[in-house]
Amino acid sequence: MSQPDFELVAGLEVHCQLATRTKLFCGCVNGASGAEANTAVCPVCTGQPGSLPVLNKAAVELAFKAALALDCGLAGTSVFARKNYFYPDLPKAYQISQYAEPLAKGGAVVFTAGGVAKKARLQRIHLEEDAGKLLHAIGSRELDCTLVDFNRCGSPLIEIVSEPDIFSGSEAHAFLAALKEILLYAGVSHCDMEKGELRCDANISVRRKGDAALGTKVEIKNLNSFKAVKEALDHEFSRQVGVIEAGGRIVQETRLWDVEKRRTELMRSKEDAHDYRYFPDPDLAPLVAEPRWVEAVKASLPELPAARRMRYTEAFGLSGYDAEVLTSDRALGDYFEGAAKGLAPEAVKTCVNLITTDLLGRLNAESLPVGRCPLAPGALGSLAGLIHKGTLSTKLAKEVFSKAWDTGKAPEALVAELGLAQVSDEGQVREWVKAACSANAQAVADLKSGNGRAIGALVGAVMKLSKGKANPLLVNRRARPTRCS
Amino acid sequence: MGISIDIVRKVARLARLTLTADEAALYQSQLGTVLDHMADLSSVDAAGLAGTLAAPVPADVLREDSPEPFEAREELLANAPEREGSYFKVRKVL
Predict the structure, then answer these.
(1) Which of B54, B56, B86 is the closest to A36 by Cβ?
(2) What is the pLDDT of residue A255?
(3) How distant is the alpha carbon of residue A326 from its chain centre?
(4) Nearest one of A358, A276, A339 to A98, comparing CA atoms
(5) Are residues A170 and A25 in the same domain?
(6) Looking at the structure, do residues A410 and A342 belong to the same domain, yes or no?
C-alpha cells in the first residue's frame, strides 16, 4: 500500500468576521483589533454582571446575505446558545453561538480545481461572537503572564461548515478562494486573512480508495492563509497514510499547523475539552427570519461572480479566462462594465485587453486597488474606442494610456494635444513607404526574391519615419513587393 | 432517577469547583431531585406542542448598527484582578 491507494477527505470550518460597524451584541466598534488594547469594550463584551446582549440587526442581515448567496436554506427561527468553557479570552465563560438550531442549513460552494468544476456541499451557517485576543509574548520576549485584549471580543462572526466534500489541498484552496469571492461580492465581510477576518479549521481523514466509510478525523487549527490550508492538508494526508502504513491507527485529536516547520503538531488537549454543555441562551429571544425581511435582504444582494461570469461570456462574448479575470474582483467587474458602456461589441475585446494588460499591470506596479484607479472607466472605454476606430495604433494607445493615467486628461484630448492620431491618409502613407524603400534597397531586393519576412524591415522603417503614426494595415498593404518599386 | 457521584464530580470539574466528599454527596442528592422534577415534566404528553424558549422577537426591535462607545472603560479595567497598561493580566496560560 502507498499514498496512491488512499484518498484524503476533508471538511472545512470557516470563521468569517462580518463587516458591521459594531459588535454582535453591543455598540462597541467592530474591527478595532489593531487599536490600543481594550479601547473598544463595554460591560456587555467584557461580561460584567447584569449586562445584557442586544442583537445587531446588520449582523443578522449580513449572515442572511451569506446564506442566500451560498444557496443555503434559511431557518424560520434560529436559537442562540451558550457554549461554555473557561479561558481568559472569554470573560463570560461562555461564547454566544448557535447550536441545535442554526441560522441556515445546506447550500454549496462551486469551485474549479485542476480544470474541473467541483461542488462542496455546506452543512450549516451560524452566527456567533468572537473571543478576545491573548498575548503571550511581546515581540520575541516571552511573558511570564498572559495579557488580554477584549477589542475583538464580541465581534460578529459567521461559521460556515462544509460537508466532507474536499479531496485535496488544492481543492481546499480553490474552495476557499471561491467562498471568499462570494463573501466579498455580497459585502458580507472584508475577508482580510492577515487581520484574521477569515479563519479556517479543517477536519481531515484518509481512507482506502473505494471505501465508503470515512476514516477517523483529525482537526487542524491555526490555518491562517490559503497556502497554509493547502500545505497542511497535503502534509496531514502523508502523515496519516504513513501512520496507517506503519500499522498504526489514527486517533481523533486536534493538531496545530506550524507555519515555520510546515508540519502539524499535536495540540495539548485537556480531558473534557469538548464538553461545552450548550444550552439556549435565556438572555436572547429566538431569531425569526420573517419572510418580508428575508426578501428585502435578498433584493439587496448584488449579482454574484458565477452569474456575472456567465453574463460576460454570453452578452460580451468574452473568453472564459477573460470573464474569470474580470469577475475575480467585484470592483474590477464594475470598472469593466463602466468602460464597456456604449462601446461597439468588437471594441469590447480591445477594452478587455487594455484592462487585463495595461490597467492591471499598472495597478499592480503601484499596489493600488481598482477602487483607487486614477483612470476613470469612461476614459479607458474611449481609449478602446479610439483604437477600434483606427485613430490610434495599439502601440500609441499605450503612450496615451500612460499619459492619461498620469495627467487625468481625456484620451481624445491627449491624442489631439500630442498629435498622436494614426495617419490613414493613403497619399501620406505612400510617401513614407517610398522613402523607406529607397533607404532599404536590400530589404526590397529580398522581398522581390520571395523572402516575405523582409517586409518587417520596411514596416519598421515606415513606423520610424512616421513616429509610429502610420496606420500599420495600410503600410503592410502598400509595402507589398509589387508596389515597392 | 438520581445521578451518579461520577457525574457530579465531572460537572464540578467542568465548572472548576473543588468539592469535598460531603459536598459531592449533598449535590448528588440535590441534583437528583432536580432531574426527578425534569422526569415528571417529561411524563406530560406534550406531543403536538411546539417548544417555546421565549417569545420570538420581531426584527424591528433589534439594535441598529451604530457605534455607541462606552465612556467609562477605566472602570472596566479597574475590575481587573491585575492589569498591565491597558491590558487585563492573568496567569500564564500557554
Answers:
(1) B86
(2) 92
(3) 12
(4) A276
(5) yes
(6) yes
Distance CA A341, CA A359 (A): 17
Identify whether residues A25 and A170 lie together within a single domain: yes
Pairing of strands A218-223, A254-258: parallel
* Residues of B engaging A, defined by a Cβ cutoff of 8 Å: 10, 13-14, 16, 53-59, 62-70, 73, 76-77, 79, 82, 84-94
Amino acid of residue A189: S
- Asked if the Cβ–Cβ distance from A147 to B63 is below 8 Å, we say no
Residue A262 placed within a domain: no
Together in a domain, A119 and A190: yes
Residue B63 is classified by DSSP as B
CB A396 within 8 A of CB A353: no
Tell me: do A307 and A400 sit in the same domain: yes
- How many pairs of residues across A and B have Cβ atoms under 8 Å apart? 134
Residue A317 C-alpha cell reads as 462574448
Choose among A143, A72, A112: nearest CA to A328.
A112
Tens of pLDDT, residues A103-115: 999 999 999 998 8
B43-78: b (≥16 Cβ within 10 Å) or e? eeeeeeeeeeeeeeeebeebbebeeeebeebeebbe
Contacting residues of A for B69, CB less than 8 Å apart: 27-29, 40, 42
Q: A189 with A198: CB under 8 angstroms?
A: yes
* Selected residue with higher pLDDT from A419 and A40: A40
In terms of domains, do A407 and A434 share one? no
> Which helix (H) or strand (E) is A160 found in, with range?
strand A156-162
Together in a domain, A407 and A442 = no
Residues A365-390: tens digit of each pLDDT:
999 999 999 999 999 999 999 888 87
Grid cell, residue A62, equals 449580513
* Residue-level pLDDT at A236: 95
Per-residue cell: A248: 498504526
Task: Tell whether A412 and A431 lie within a shared domain.
Answer: no
Question: Percent of chain A, pLDDT > 90?
Answer: 66
B56 CB neighbours in chain A (<8 A) are: 77, 285-288
Could you tell me which residues come within 8 angstroms of residue A439 by beta carbon, excluding any fewer than 6 positions away?
A: A461
As a whole number of angstroms, the distance between CA A151 and CA A89 comes to: 11
**Structural domain total, chain A:** 3
**CB A424 within 8 Å of CB A471:** yes
Domain that holds residue A64: 13-205+270-281+290-295
Strand, coil or helix: what is A19? coil
Contacts of A18 (CB under 8 A, 6+ apart): A30, A58, A59, A62, A63, A155, A156, A157, A158, A188, A189
ipTM score for this prediction: 0.86
A167-185 pLDDT, tens per residue? Answer: 999 999 999 999 999 999 9
